[in-house]
Amino acid sequence: MKPQNPDTRSILAAEYVLGTLHGQARRRFEHWMKSDPALRREVGRWEARLNPLCDTLPAEQPGPAVWKNIEARINPPREAARAEKTSWLGSLAFWRWTSFASAGLASVLLAFVVVSTGPSDVAGPEEAMVVVMEDSETRNPSISVAWSPEGRGKPKLRIRVIGHAEMAPGTAWELWALPEGNQPPRSLGFINTHETQWVEVPEELRHQLNKARGMAMSLEPEGGSPTGRPSGPVLASGRCLKI
Amino acid sequence: MDALDDLMARCAMRDQRAFAELYRQTSGRLLAVALRVVRRRDWAEEILQESFVNIWNHVSHFDRVRSAPMTWMTTIVRNRALDWVRRPKHETSDEELDGIVENWADEAPGPLDRLRNAADSSALAECLGTLSGQQRQSIALAYLHGLSHSEMAEHLGQPLGTIKTWVRRGLERLRGCMDATSA
Asked: Is A144 inside any structural domain?
């Protein structure tokens, strides 16, 4: 029977964090946590209270094999193969994307085939690209972004939200460009749940976009991230494929 | 947003260089956490490895509003280490446990002094100072070394009920003190 008394709940949370709650009691507590956000918050408070104890421990250097093994585990052959492909047409991401967005494919391709060679007003040649962002949880394509800097009018990102997405009230979806190297993510603005939408790219961000390695979408409070960097969970992300 | 927050955000975007940097900055401290609980280097390294794969796979769920990066990562490592040490074949020898318990005896100044000197922990250090020596010792033995109530009872030579009371009263007092400090 799950306790209701706040003091009992708090002490149980503390014993869970401490590790003195174990065996079946620990499993049962974890089960309660799943459906009880207030209990999860209490656990979080205890983690924050006790965590400084770990600062008392002198650091220990792990052997080199540890990182090698981690690297091998996070880089399964499929990912490695994908990274090596130079042709975006041959990439797995592209083919997965086409199965979801085949209807829009012809028009997207057409837009990229007609690339003018007129002078660009920012440093470096701008290239068209697509990004297929995968849902962080299911790894299914959830949002595609197409960027064609050349063309008539102000260039915009063309966004397609795949499937029927829902956004919780009081939240916002913020789109980010991930630049090369050690640069922090740059906000590209907000998107909504509409299947097709356009996001205008401010002049000063066009150069950033040209150099972006990937894009991501994070869940933020209404009005956007308070920190200027992604502050909530990243719901979708993907690599930029230059075309 | 500090450097670790930034690295976490980039890891969530599958930036492997950011992940390598995150490992470089935190693996030493996290290995120390695992090593204290499981007490064998090869086991601790295995836990560290599994934890970092877990961190990479779940970093998109990290919510910096709810917890600090180091707290989040430490929790992953500690939970794995606690699960590990509770399996019968990974139990620690009596001699080892006696040594650990000795080290946290009330008069042993080392670990608590280090806590007082560690950054960001002054509130915890101050509040642990208000606990009785027995309460403080039992909380440290459980949190840092993963000792169970019954292991503490055996090695401190006290009835199980007494140990449970030390832990619970210690936690209650700690919460009261830390809430008052942060208010």
From this structure: yes
In a domain, A1, yes or no: no
**Do A123 and A217 belong to one domain?**
yes
CATH code, A208: 2.60.40
CATH code for position B19: 1.10.1740.10
Residues 114-143 of A with CB under 8 A from B: 136-137
Count other C-beta atoms under 10 Å from residue B43's C-beta. 17
Relative orientation angle of helices A24-34 and A6-18, to the nearest 10 degrees: 120
A158: which strand partners?
A146, A198
Q: What is the pLDDT of residue B67?
A: 86
> Is a pLDDT exceeding 70 seen at residue A132?
yes
Residue A72 included in any domain: no
Phi, psi for residue A61 in degrees, rounded to 5: -80, 120
Does residue A172 sit in the same domain as residue A94?
yes
Residue (of A84, A169, A15, B16) closest to A92 by Cα position: A84
ipTM over 0.85: yes
Is A231 within 8 Å of B111 when comparing Cβ atoms? no
> Which of 56-115 (A) contact B at CB < 8 A?
56-63, 65-67, 69-71, 73-75
Residues of chain B neighbouring A64 (CB-CB closer than 8 A):
none
- Its domain, for residue B131, covers 93-182
Are residues A179 and A139 part of one domain? yes
Q: How far is A79 from chain B (nearest CA, A)?
A: 11
CB-CB neighbors (< 8 A) of A136 in chain B: 12, 60-61
Neighbour-count burial of B2, counting CB atoms closer than 10 A to its CB (0-12 exposed, 13-18 middle, 19+ buried) = exposed
Q: Å from A150 to nearest chain B CA?
A: 27
Q: What is the pLDDT of residues B157-166, one digit of tens each?
A: 999 999 999 9
Residue A99 pLDDT level (bands cut at 50, 70, 90): very low
B105 and B59 within one domain: no
- Point out which residues pair with A191 in neighbouring strands: A173
- Residue A197 CB: number of other CB atoms within 10 A? 15
Say if residue B110 is in the same domain as residue B60: no
Token pair belonging to A225:
């991230």
A78 within domain boundaries: no
Q: What is the pLDDT of residues B25-38, one digit of tens each?
A: 999 999 999 999 99
Residue A157 pLDDT > 80, yes or no?
Answer: yes
